[in-house]
Design brief:
The protein is of the alpha/beta class and 278 residues long. Helices cover 40% and strands 16% of the residues. The strands form three sheets. It has a six-stranded parallel sheet. A three-stranded parallel sheet has the order 3-2-4, with helices on both faces. Strands 9-10 form a two-stranded antiparallel sheet. The radius of gyration is 19 Å and the shape is globular. Bound molecules: guanine.
Length: 278
Amino acid sequence: MAQLIDGKRISQQIKDELKAEVESLKNQGVRVCLAVIQVGSDPASTVYVNNKKKACAYIGIESEAYELPEEVSEEELLSLVERLNQTEHVNGILVQLPLPAHIDEDKVIKTICADKDVDGFHPQSVGRLWIGEKGFLSCTPAGIIQLLKRSGIELDGKECVIVGRSNIVGKPMAALLLRENATVTIAHSHTKNLKEITNRADVLIVAIGKRQFIGPEYVKEGAVVIDVGMHRDENNKLCGDVLFSEVEKKASAITPVPGGVGPMTIAMLMNNCVETVR
Ligand code: GUN
């Protein structure tokens, strides 16, 4: 039976550490404020945004919510971001993705001042990450590193395979694992012999967005398996990219869905908010 990597417990631990830090900052007269912008009313985005606001309230970070209609023009959104860039008491700016098709996401991300880029999506944050400079880290990969470290899983010299090459997860994950001295492979939809490659992994990180795609035949005996996926199964229950019930028999440690990677993303966003004033 694999060790269950408990993202709920570890994210709570991080949030409690941040709460104490924010309390002490408050005593020194330092406030932290996050501006959250949501365009339209996609139900999944609303859930994510509400969870972010709740986490802010728990830790003692102030949050300001900006809800814009689906039809808002790109120009109006950019001018709100520019205004928040100039607003002194706003330390972090988050624009919930995805944005409606008529808005250029890259343009919006680039407009956020790099010093307030708590998502870690700005090219300046990405560049800093790759050259090993201090900066905002993309929240999901940073959360995965915390999950592994706080579960006592050694990364130095390990074979790590990431399945998925997105800008939000796969690519920054590779940079962070390199920082930990792991040997890193990124596999993706055009990869040949995927099974052969994933079977090399001491640590397998799956972020492909395909429901229960990774079965035990993709996993080496004793591997650590991290599942970034989030789907509904045929009984409408939450599940990941990994076929948990089968893979857990082969893995030495595994993250569940829900309660694995998901809660870590918000904890690391909160960490980035506090980082703006450290
Ligand atoms: N949509 C899904 N995940 C994220 C995230 O981490 N940040 C933002 N801004 N939008 C998202």
